[in-house]
Design a protein that fits this description.
The chain is α/β, with parallel strands linked by helices and about 325 residues long. It has helices at about 10-25, 35-45, 60-70, 85-95, 110-145, 155-175, 190-195, 195-215, 240-255, 290-305, and strands spanning about 5, 25-30, 50, 75-80, 100-105, 175-185, 220-225, 230-235, 270-275, 310.
């Protein structure tokens, strides 16, 4: 049942309004002045108010302004009930925020038309709010999707850039360290050539899932390109980052996935490790790009040393 609040200091007029509205199927709450109406609106979800212009204490105009200036969750349709009928008075009422007005003594047909118009406005506002909320949810989902690699279900390069920038700036602000692991699936091109691209895609998913289960909740994992995966480890030094990289290497090796194109006969990864030491880095070393490049150099070293290895970049 739809609810209406009546604020009217005249008892007879108030009762007559209540009886009329209840005959039309509304649930009516009636109060004798604007102060009671305002107190009631603070605790009840009422979207349609009929208030007399002239009342003791808080009058209809002041009540209307208070509603418009408040942060109520939904729109309140406000009908001003008044004995004033000049054009200037009507303009004053509408400027205060009233949606409509009904002159006293009220005409039943006029009142019904204006109340129903208010209902339509309220319903439209509810529908728009619902659609707006749904759109916001969809936008959040879309925003998340554009940062996720759809194949590996980890962050993409765009989200990596956003994350590393935040981690690096936070590290310098608070004198934290952080580590970077760059992983690359060994002989992945050969795997695709032998087994096909669809099984290759499945391997990418499997490797990403394995790395996710190996790392901490606070670590961030990204597909950097092709079969390369980058992991950011906040508040870690070179030694702890090396240990994390070795866990990744062992986890992939323990999957025992056949790979006829590799020396070992099974799927493996190589990892390059670097770390940012905020108390030591100076000049260009303050850029996260340098830290990432060091991890890339370490990865190249691991590949050169025979693959299925972890190598680190150590500053001299």
């Amino acid at each position: 049942m739809k609810r209406i609040l009546i604020a009217e200091d005249d008892l007879i007029s108030r009762r007559l309004l209540q009886k009329t509205l209840e005959e039309w199927g509304y649930e009516v709450t009636q109060v004798k002045d604007g102060q009671e109406a305002w107190a009631f609106l603070q605790k009840e979800d009422i979207r349609l108010v009929i208030a007399d212009w002239i009342m003791p204490g808080i009058n209809g105009i002041t009540l209307c302004r208070s509603i418009r200036e408040s942060k109520m969750p939904g729109y309140v349709y406000f009908i001003l009930l008044t004995g004033k009928d000049t054009k200037e008075d009507m303009i004053k009422g509408l400027e205060a925020g009233a949606d409509d007005y009904v002159t006293k003594p009220f005409d039943r047909n006029e009142l019904q038309v204006k109340v129903r118009a208010g209902e339509r406005i309220i319903e439209l506002e509810r529908e728009l709010t619902q659609k707006h909320d749904e759109l916001n949810k969809l936008n959040l989902v879309l925003e998340e999707l554009i940062r996720i690699d759809p194949l590996m279900n980890i962050g993409n390069r765009r989200s990596f850039y956003e994350c590393i920038d935040k981690v690096h700036n936070r590290a310098y602000r608070y004198a934290y360290n952080y580590g970077i692991i760059m992983c690359d699936i060994d002989d992945f091109k050969a795997y695709n050539d032998i087994y096909g691209h669809l099984p290759g895609d499945n391997i990418l998913k499997t490797v990403a899932d394995s790395i996710k289960t190996t790392m901490r909740m606070s670590d961030d994992i990204f597909r950097f390109g092709g079969e390369e995966i980058v992991v950011i480890l906040p508040e870690q030094d070179i030694e702890t980052t090396l240990l994390a990289a070795e866990r990744i290497r062992k986890a992939i090796e323990s999957l025992n996935i056949e790979h006829k194109g590799s020396k070992s006969g099974k799927l493996t990864v190589s990892c390059g490790v670097s770390a940012c030491f905020t108390t030591e880095c100076k000049g260009d070393n303050k850029k996260w790009e340098i830290v990432l490049d060091h991890a890339d150099q370490a990865l190249y070293k691991a590949k050169e040393e025979g693959k299925n290895k972890v190598s680190s970049y150590k500053q001299h």
